[in-house]
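C-alpha cells incoming
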C-alpha cells in the first residue's frame, strides 16, 4: 500500500498553536518523513505545534528552489514504499508559489493520495479583508524584478481587474516592497483600488484598501522587509 502525502500549512505570522486547527495538528502526529524547504524552520514549526516525536526519529528531505531537476520524483520512493509523508511550506499553504507543487504533481502521476490540510493562507486572508471582488479573482504570484517589466505587468493586471472586474492579487520579495508600491502609485489609474495586506497574523497586521489617489496622500508605514500581499480591483 502506498503512503499518503499530507500538505501541512505553516504560520504566516501568528503563534503556531493558534494558526493551525486542532484536527490538522492531530492528523500529522504519526508522520516521520517530511519534505521541507529549510530544515531549521520546519523543526521550529513542528516544535511549536507540540509534535512530540524525537527529531532523531524523523527524516527531513529538502525540496527548494536550489534542488536539482528530478528531485521531486526521487522523493516519491518513500511514499511508494508505504510511508506517509508531510510537505511543509515555509509560510502559509504548501504549493502556493513554492516548489512543493512539483512533488504534488509527481504524486498525482504515481497514484498517491493527496491530503490537503486546513491552515492560514495570505491570499484568502487578503481577499477577505480587501473589500474587493471575492467572486472573481486571481493570484498571479511574484511580479518581475526589472522595473520596466514590473510596470508593464502592473498595467496588465490593472487592465484585467478593471475590464473583467476580477481582483488581482500579487506579491514581491519583501526587500522590494517599497519600490513595488511606488510603481503601483506612479503607474496605475487614480481611481483604481489597491489593498495592502502586511504582516498578516501578527500584532503589526495592516489591511487597508484605498484608491491610488488616496494612497498618495496617506502613505502606509514602510513596507520594506515586511511580508506583504497586494491586491488591485475596482
Amino acid at each position: 500500500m502506498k503512503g499518503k502525502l499530507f500538505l501541512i500549512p505553516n504560520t504566516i505570522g501568528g503563534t503556531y498553536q493558534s494558526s493551525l486547527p486542532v484536527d490538522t495538528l492531530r492528523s500529522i502526529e504519526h508522520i516521520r518523513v517530511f519534505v521541507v524547504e529549510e530544515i531549521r524552520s520546519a523543526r521550529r514549526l513542528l516544535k511549536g505545534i507540540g509534535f512530540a516525536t524525537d527529531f532523531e526519529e524523523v527524516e527531513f528531505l529538502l525540496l527548494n528552489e536550489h534542488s536539482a531537476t528530478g528531485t521531486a520524483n526521487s522523493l516519491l520512493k518513500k511514499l511508494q514504499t508505504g510511508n506517509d509523508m508531510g510537505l511543509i511550506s515555509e509560510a502559509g499553504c504548501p504549493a502556493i508559489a513554492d516548489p512543493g507543487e512539483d512533488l504534488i504533481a509527481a504524486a498525482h502521476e504515481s497514484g498517491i493520495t493527496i491530503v490537503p490540510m486546513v491552515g492560514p493562507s495570505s491570499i484568502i486572508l487578503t481577499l477577505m479583508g480587501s473589500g474587493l471582488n471575492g467572486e472573481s479573482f486571481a493570484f498571479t504570484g511574484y511580479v518581475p524584478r526589472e522595473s520596466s517589466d514590473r510596470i508593464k505587468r502592473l498595467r496588465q493586471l490593472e487592465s484585467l481587474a478593471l475590464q473583467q472586474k476580477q481582483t488581482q492579487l500579487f506579491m514581491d520579495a519583501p526587500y522590494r516592497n517599497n519600490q513595488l508600491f511606488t510603481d503601483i502609485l506612479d503607474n496605475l489609474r487614480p481611481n483604481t483600488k489597491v489593498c495592502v495586506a502586511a504582516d498578516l497574523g501578527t500584532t503589526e497586521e495592516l489591511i487597508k484598501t484605498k484608491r491610488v489617489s488616496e494612497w498618495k496622500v496617506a502613505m502606509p508605514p514602510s513596507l520594506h522587509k515586511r511580508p506583504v500581499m497586494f491586491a488591485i480591483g475596482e
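note: The chain has two domains: 4-116, 122-233.
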